[in-house]
Structures are given as C-alpha cells and as structure tokens.
Specification:
Length: about 180
C-alpha cells in the first residue's frame, strides 16, 4: 500500500505560487486554490495558511476565513480520487444513501465522520456528501474527480469506484 507523506508544502513551493500573484488580498483565493492543488493530499495545512498570511501581510484569521468560506477548500487531507454524493432532497429520494453505502463498501467498509466524509487510510479515495449539484432533474447525481454523473445507479457507481481502486493498485504494483 502506497502511503502518501503528509507534510506541509515547503516555503519554496509556497513562494513559487505567491510570487505569481503579487496583487492585493483578492489574489488570496487564487493562491489557496493553487496551493491546494499542489499538495499531494489536496488540502491546505494550517502551516501553509499561516505562511500565506505572513507573506501577504494579512492576519491568519483573514486567510483562514477565506479557506473555510468556500466549500471547495479542504482543511483535512484528501484522497487522490474524490467521490462526491449529493445529499439534496431530490437525490436523497432517489437513493443517494444507497450510493454512499455502496462506495463505502467498495472502499473497504469505513464509516464517514460527522460531516459525511471518509478518506481511506492509504489516501487513495475520499468520499463525501454535497448539498446539491444544481442538477436535481438528473437525480441522483454524483461527482467523481472532475466528472459529474446524473441518474447514476448503485451498480454503475460501484463499478467506477472499483476501477479507480484497481487502477491505483496497478500503478502501485508497476512502481514498486
Ligand atoms: S438535490 Fe441532488 S443535484 Fe440537486
């Protein structure tokens, strides 16, 4: 099992991003987006937020409030792949709970935390819920990495997740 090391980005890695956004506070959003993408576990460690605040001359709480306001920012380590399951009313009535339990079963049987999020111990997959994708007519809707699937069945989603996990395993075998 590949373990992805969970360390903050180095000051040099953060500087490289900040230096491309020399403007005022409005750039913080873009900086945080890039830094999250750059982190192998797709999140913003506290140390990184504090470093950005220091470099931009802002209070840490100001930068932290940007990171917590937008739901696409993660403050906890994420998996390399993400599955987002809509828990809005339309999707709920069309079986989003079944989709969630199917994904969790494929991912090894873990239980989500109080926010409805679960990351496998090897950080290969994160599954979480979202309030609504705004595509209720296509319920149930899920997002897998950057792709949205409407009217998805439990079997199809399980197959997609199984293939993702298998692909990771093949990659792991070929690099070990
Ligand atoms: S309720 Fe699921 S997309 Fe709106």
């Amino acid at each position: 099992m590949i373990q992805v090391e969970n360390t903050p980005l180095t000051p040099e890695q953060v500087d490289e991003v900040i230096d491309r956004f020399p403007g005022e506070t409005g750039d913080v959003l873009s900086i945080l987006e890039e830094l999250q993408e750059k982190h192998p576990l797709k999140y913003l460690p506290r140390e990184t937020l504090e470093y950005v605040a220091d470099r931009k001359g802002l209070s840490p709480s100001r930068v932290y409030s940007v990171a917590t306001f937008y739901s696409f920012f993660n403050l906890e380590p994420q998996g390399r792949h993400s599955v987002m399951i809509c828990r809005g009313t339309a999707c709920h009535t069309r079986g989003s709970n079944l989709l969630m339990s199917g994904v969790l079963a494929e991912a090894g049987g873990g239980a989500p935390d109080e926010d409805g999020s679960y990351t496998t111990p090897d950080h290969q997959l994160t599954v979480r819920t979202v309030a609504c994708f705004g595509q209720c007519a296509l319920a149930p809707v899920v997002g897998v990495n950057h792709e949205i699937y409407g009217r998805i069945s439990d079997m199809k989603l399980r197959r997609i997740v199984r293939e993702l996990i298998q692909k990771e395993k093949q990659h792991e075998d070929s690099t070990s």
